[in-house]
């Protein structure tokens, strides 16, 4: 192509066409392939291999056995854990969906005598704290000597059922997860074409008939997507069952206790695979369901839906919504209150306040605090950079190799945290890459878990970007590098940073993977809280919990202040 | 005048094999320096694809693009020294007006003082006082002002060629008319060669030196605005630009370019054959513009001798719509041919059913190659 050299009149010194596309894409694809193979496929392969080996032995082709999987069914312990997980998840999904849809319905379709923005924000806050941090609050409130238990006992002479076990787990997890359904349902309910319902009304359909023939079918896909998110999170939740489960095991807690108690990676791996299998089934079900319901996109005219002006409905809704929010935020309030409590035994409120919990925590858990912040920051930065790069390549240049990126970002979605923990431990405790006992393994685990979300944030920002922005820059004479740094990057930055903040928020209290991978040197806040809680030292646990809440709120405040990203939009689509 | 741009057998295929679509099919044209050349056609006709190939934003499947005689077919867009105004304006929301306009200069490493001077001059040219507008953000400006900034940004570094991709389609009708005159003024003041893509035929006629009328990936005709309107090369062009009466007839006699044709039902018309694309054989399509037909009441017998009409047909009014500046009549000739007549005069007695006489000059009647029209 000699014409280029002769005709490019004011050729700049950069290599233009060379630096252009192909090398860059190749490198990013190689990077993606590397991540996929080393950090996802290989660890999962190790998990599979271990699950096929006899207990306490490494994998050998000659000694493949399905004994571990058989025991999952024959042993009452394992079968019980699987059934418990299914029961727990089913209840949590059902309750979260009911609450989430109810809350969304009243906020969108009924004129409530409440501040809308405030209720939106309050409905999102439960997501800002890892579920297990608040779990112990339920014990304090409703446990055998809990404040509310005692009050009810004195007032009515009624004794409450024990909070330990299935009831407690269902309540504690549902209270933190219904906002996932709420946010998705809200989007669908708030922005569906009102003329669809109006036309049904004109044709003579009663309100109830309209609800079930028009409204419900239209929002179902969004609601189901929210339910799936809840399912995935609930089935992988470790902390809450570990604290409130009592003698009831679920899959994640049993995996943990097999490993920490017996060093039995083989059974743990088999259970991990069952857990992945359940997630995959659920995802496939949703994909199949959604494929036959493409009509969400038909509505071209998107506008705010009509609200009921009924006073009665408004008051009923307001009471219901306040009740939902109050109960959901009870754990958070307890944590903060408990953090400042010097004495709190069997009374509604603490009897003495002070800072001793914080003083103790800052003294004893300094390393954990520093570790959490450091590990989370590093993982967030790496996940954001890599996720955005992959997003760039996959949106800009559809080509062969794109499938590598798709798999790399889709696979972690179906891996519960504890499975990522087991996989990392299985892969990197021996062999060519030994990382156990280091902070690096935690960073890798965090990265694998959260990078797909950064990828999504990057992808949606890039898709929203008008392609002619970049073309205009190119025609103006900018090289690919100049266009990327001066036009593309500044324009997608708000979305990318919002994604990064969300990753930070969800990692700062990460426990499921951490609990498998932490070491004495690399303990985190979440592990410290967990250890305090199982030894019933609520004071320091709540002080650390309060610190987590503070960190998360600071991050949310900063994006809101500097990027104008509202907390409610932050979580949409997660 | 020198040739600014030459497109040689440009072809663009999207997709592979049988599933592929040929968006641009073997298109060639030359544009003189300083000329404003329009690509006119319906959406999907390939006009934007040609513009994007010239800009380097779309790879050329085959053919060549030459700027001042040099091959630029495979040069990346940033080395082509072009300016482009996008349909969406593509103004950078994260930059001020000044920074937007300065963008291309800064990319070229122009020194600070020169950047300031040139940006001010560019803003002056597009009638945006620099002192008022420099520090604003594009989002604070109206559509017309955004349009001017996009134009200033494309002009500021003296590109060899200015490309317009439907630049006015986001403006309301009144502003569109005003802005197209502004664009023409700026283009002539800067003496810059420009290619202008539009689907609006009035816009193309109003501002272009020459127009290329496109259909389904090929150029049907290239000509001056008067040329494509008065002497369309085909029935397709005639039908697309303005309104045309088109009906089938057979030539009965020829004398030079002049000829006489007769419809199946016996209407006889005198007219001319288009020399550029003469009909093959005697089967032709007759083209006459509605406003070239004069309508008069037959009873009154008032044939205006002044208009030099040589064609005269008896007809009956079938419909009429009063449009203010003119009245549009639907009439049917004695032979059953339906015609549209635009009359500046509103004839009170010419109600549906009224017997009228149509007269029209032979010089405005064109015999085109026979083309099966949809209606």
Main sheet: strands, sense, barrel of chain A: 2 strands, antiparallel
The helix tally of chain A amounts to 26
What name goes with the CATH superfamily of the largest domain in chain A? Answer: MetI-like
How many runs of DSSP E, i.e. beta strands of chain B?
A: 20
What's the rounded overall pLDDT mean of chain B?
A: 89
Short description:
The complex is a heterodimer of chains A (574) and B (375). Chain A contains 26 helices and 2 strands.
Report what the structure shows.
The complex is a heterodimer of chains A (574) and B (375). With 574 residues, chain A is mainly α. Chain A folds into 2 domains: 20-49 and 355-574, MetI-like (MetI-like fold, Orthogonal Bundle), CATH 1.10.3720.10; 77-333, Orthogonal Bundle (MetI-like fold). Chain A has 26 helices and 2 strands. Chain A has a two-stranded antiparallel ribbon. In chain A, helix 7 (131-142) crosses helix 9 and helix 17 crosses helix 24 (525-534). Chain A starts with a helix and ends with a helix. The model of chain A is unreliable at 1-20 and 296-301 (pLDDT under 50). By secondary structure, chain B is of the alpha+beta class. Chain B folds into 2 domains: 3-230, Rossmann fold; 235-369, Beta Barrel (OB fold (Dihydrolipoamide Acetyltransferase, E2P)). Chain B has helices at 47-55, 97-107, 112-125, 130-133, 143-155, 173-190, 201-207, 225-230, 235-240, and strands at residues 3-14, 21-32, 36-40, 62-67, 70-71, 82-85, 161-165, 194-198, 210-215, 218-223, 245-255, 258-262, 268-273, 283-288, 294-297, 311-322, 327-333, 338-343, 355-360, 366-369. A 6-stranded mixed sheet of chain B has the order 6-7-8-3-9-10, with helices on both faces. In chain B, strands 11-12-13-20-14 form a 5-stranded mixed barrel. A 5-stranded antiparallel sheet of chain B has the order 15-19-16-17-18, with no helix packed on it. In chain B, helix 2 (97-107) packs parallel to helix 5. Chain B is elongated. The model of chain B has no long low-confidence stretch (mean pLDDT 89). At the A-B interface, helix 1, helix 21 and helix 22 of A face strand 5, strand 6 and helix 2 of B.
């Amino acid at each position: 192509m000699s014409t280029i050299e002769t005709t490019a009149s004011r050729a700049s010194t950069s290599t233009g066409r060379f630096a252009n596309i192909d090398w860059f894409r190749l490198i990013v694809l190689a990077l993606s392939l590397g991540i996929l193979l080393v950090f996802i496929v290989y660890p999962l392969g190790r998990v599979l291999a271990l699950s096929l080996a006899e207990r306490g032995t490494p994998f050998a082709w000659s000694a493949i056995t399905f004994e571990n999987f058989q025991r999952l069914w024959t042993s009452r312990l394992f079968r019980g854990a699987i059934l418990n997980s299914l029961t727990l998840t089913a209840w949590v999904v059902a309750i979260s969906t009911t609450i989430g849809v109810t809350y969304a319905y009243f906020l969108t379709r009924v004129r409530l005598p409440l501040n809308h923005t405030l209720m939106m924000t309050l409905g999102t806050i439960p997501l800002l704290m890892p579920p297990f941090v608040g779990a112990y609050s339920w014990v304090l409130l409703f446990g055998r000597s809990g404040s509310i238990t005692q009050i009810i006992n004195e007032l009515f002479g009624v004794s409450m059922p024990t909070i330990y076990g299935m009831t407690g787990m269902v309540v504690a997890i549902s209270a933190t997860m219904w906002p996932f359904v709420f946010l998705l349902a809200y989007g669908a309910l708030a922005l569906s074409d009102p003329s669809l319902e109006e036309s049904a009304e004109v044709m003579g359909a009663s309100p109830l008939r309209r609800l079930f023939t028009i409204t419900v079918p239209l929002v179902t896909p969004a609601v189901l997507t929210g339910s799936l998110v809840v399912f995935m999170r609930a089935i992988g939740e470790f902390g809450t069952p570990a604290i409130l489960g009592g003698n009831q095991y679920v899959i994640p807690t049993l995996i943990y206790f097999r490993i920490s108690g017996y060093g039995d990676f083989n059974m743990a791996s088999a259970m991990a695979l069952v857990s992945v299998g359940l997630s995959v089934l659920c995802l496939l079900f949703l994909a199949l369901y959604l494929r036959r319901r493409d009509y969400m996109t038909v509505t071209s005219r998107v506008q705010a839906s009509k609200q009921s002006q009924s006073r009665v409905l408004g008051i009923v809704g307001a009471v219901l919504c306040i009740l939902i929010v109050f109960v959901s935020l009870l754990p958070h309030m307890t944590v903060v209150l408990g953090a400042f409590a010097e004495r709190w035994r069997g009374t509604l409120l603490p009897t003495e306040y002070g800072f001793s919990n914080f003083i103790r925590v800052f003294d004893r858990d300094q390393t954990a605090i520093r570790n959490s912040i450091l590990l989370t920051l590093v993982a967030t930065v790496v996940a954001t950079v890599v996720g955005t790069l992959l997003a760039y390549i996959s949106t800009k240049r559809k080509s062969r190799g794109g499938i590598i990126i798709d798999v790399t970002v889709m696979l972690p979605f179906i891996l519960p945290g504890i499975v990522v923990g087991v996989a990392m431990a299985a892969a990197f405790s021996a062999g060519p890459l030994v990382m156990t006992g280091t902070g690096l393994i935690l960073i890798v685990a965090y990265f694998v878990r959260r990078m797909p979300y950064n990828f999504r944030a990057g992808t949606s920002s890039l898709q929203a970007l008008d392609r002619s922005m970049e073309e205009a820059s190119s025609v103006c004479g900018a090289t690919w590098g100049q266009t990327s740094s001066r036009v593309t990057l500044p324009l997608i930055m708000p979305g990318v940073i919002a994604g990064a903040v969300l990753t930070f928020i969800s990692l700062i209290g990460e426990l499921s993977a951490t609990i498998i991978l932490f070491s004495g040197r690399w303990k985190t806040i979440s592990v410290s809280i967990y250890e305090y809680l199982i030894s019933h030292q609520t004071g320091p646990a709540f002080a650390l919990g309060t610190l987590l809440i503070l960190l998360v709120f600071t991050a949310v405040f900063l994006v809101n202040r500097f990027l104008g990203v509202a907390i409610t939009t932050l979580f949409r689509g997660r | 005048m020198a040739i600014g741009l030459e497109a040689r057998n440009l072809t663009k295929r999207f997709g592979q094999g049988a599933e592929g679509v040929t968006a641009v099919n073997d298109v060639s044209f030359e544009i003189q320096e300083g000329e404003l050349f329009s690509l006119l056609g319906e959406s999907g006709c390939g006009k934007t694809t040609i513009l994007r190939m010239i800009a380097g934003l779309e790879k050329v499947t085959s053919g060549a693009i030459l700027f001042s005689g040099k091959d630029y077919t495979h040069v990346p867009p940033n080395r082509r020294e072009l300016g482009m105004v996008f349909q969406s304006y593509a103004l950078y929301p994260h930059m001020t007006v000044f920074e937007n306009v300065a963008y291309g200069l800064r990319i070229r490493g122009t020194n600070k003082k020169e950047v300031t001077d040139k940006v001010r001059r560019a803003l002056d040219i597009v009638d945006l006082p620099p002192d008022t507008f420099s520090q604003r953000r594009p989002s604070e400006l109206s559509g017309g002002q955004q349009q001017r900034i996009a134009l200033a940004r494309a002009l500021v570094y003296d590109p060899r060629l200015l490309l317009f991709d439907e630049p006015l389609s986001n403006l309301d009708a009144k502003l569109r008319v005003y802005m197209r005159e502004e664009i023409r003024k700026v283009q002539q003041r800067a003496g810059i060669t420009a290619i202008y893509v539009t689907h609006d035929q009035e816009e193309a006629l109003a501002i272009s030196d020459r127009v290329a009328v496109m259909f389904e990936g090929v150029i049907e005709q290239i000509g001056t605005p008067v040329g494509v309107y008065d002497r369309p090369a085909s029935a397709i062009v005639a039908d697309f630009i303005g309104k045309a009466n088109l009906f089938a007839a057979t030539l009965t006699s020829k004398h030079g370019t002049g000829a006489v044709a007769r419809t199946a039902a016996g209407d006889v018309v005198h007219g001319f054959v288009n020399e550029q694309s003469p009909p093959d054989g005697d089967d032709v399509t007759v083209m006459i513009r509605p406003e070239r037909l004069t309508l008069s009441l037959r009873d009154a017998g008032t044939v205006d001798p002044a208009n030099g009409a040589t064609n005269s047909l008896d007809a009956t009014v079938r419909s009429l719509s009063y449009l203010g500046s003119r009245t549009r009549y639907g009439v049917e000739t004695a032979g059953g041919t339906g015609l549209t007549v635009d009359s500046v005069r509103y004839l009170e007695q010419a109600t549906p059913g009224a017997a009228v006489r149509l007269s029209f000059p032979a010089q405005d009647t064109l015999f085109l190659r026979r083309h099966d029209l949809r209606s």
